[in-house]
Amino acid sequence: MSTGDVVVLDFWVSPFCLRVKMALAEKGVAYETQEEDLFGGKSELLVKSNPIYQKVPVLLHGGKAVCESTNILSYIDETWPSPPLLPPCTYGRAQARFWADFIDKKVFEEGNALWRTKGEEQEAAKKIFIETLKQLEGALGDNDYFGGATFGFVDIMLVSLTFWFCAYEKFGTFNLGDHCPKLSSWIKKCMERESVSTLLPDPEKVHEFVIMVRKMRGFE
Amino acid sequence: MADEVILLDFWASPFGMRTRIALAEKGIEYEYKEENLADKSRLLLKMNPVKKQIPVLIHNGKPVCESLIIVHYIDEVWKHKSPLLPSDSYQRAHAMFWADYVDKKIYSLGRQVWLSSGEEHEAAKNELMGCFKLLEGELGDKAYFGDDTFGIVDVALIPFYSWFYMFEQCANMSIEAECPKLVAWGKRCMEKESVSKSLPDQHKVYDLLMDLKKKILAK
Hints:
The complex is a heterodimer. By secondary structure, chain A is of the alpha+beta class. Helices cover about 60% and strands about 10% of the residues of chain A. Chain A folds into 2 domains: about 5-80, Glutaredoxin (3-Layer(aba) Sandwich); about 90-215, Glutathione S-transferase Yfyf (Class Pi), Chain A, domain 2. Chain A is globular, with a radius of gyration of 17 Å. Chain B contains 11 helices and 4 strands, in the order βαβαββααααααααα.
């Protein structure tokens, strides 16, 4: 299949799009990206491919659209089975899906609360965010990765969010390493992987992006 | 060795209903344990320490949490009977997309219709009706969401059929008038034993929700 057969409707700063690109990279699948200008106006292709949510990422495979990042990751794992992102045993897969869902529901929203709030509200948001990260650290345990000995589904779900952590740390004035040292080590280990290090956007650029969004939305 | 299957549940929970339906579809024997959500058991807190919520499926001593994840697990373990997910990966992604849509929208909007008032209530009611219309569009002329077989999207959505009476009473929603195909689908699902035995009576659910509403609003 040519690269034209696999297209990702993308937005550079979206951790959800990054997940999809990382999964494809892990599988060695060649793909094209189409950058969406979410502030300028969504493309006809995006609106047609994802009429329900009109959001990125969308994976187009042979012209057929798959939407919602967790769903796309499952599809990628099933369509290109090697190397597997989910564990081989059914129970292990259920555990991985649980943590993937936990990450999806909590991390981005709770992290973003750190730049959307001030004062006491921000302090409360910080406590909640750190508590969530500690729960994830508990799930990691003493393993190299959330997938045990191998990098997998849950690792991709979480590491794709970590380039936003610099912005959270700056606005929330805290250091991740002070609260979750194991998670910090895990991030460094993930960065040794080509799929992560080549794809992760510059955290400083995210910080600038957040400053711009805050001004736009009148948070300043 | 026989499987030991326990379900920690609450009779009126739509999420619990999903797991009951899936177990019934597969013909799995299990022990049902009713939880008092105001006084959660040690077993529940031990088996779901992260969310502390029902349903929890305990399979040979190991817990699986989150209703759609449990349904997926049940489908994978007991794959010899009544598949709930398609075998084709694109069709599977399509089914999971819609099950996730139900998960994201119906409970939170339904809850707002149940508990809120004024503008918030009106907005939730309109948005919820919009979701039902979208789902009806997705159903089309099929017997079930899973093409012509009962599948994960049907399992995800049908528990909310037990809330339809509450929506009619609390919000004057005429779901049958506005989404006749969806209501026909609901009735069709209720003809299945796995569904009719798993869903409580709509009036019982309504009485509980009104009772809870009084307590919540009094706080």
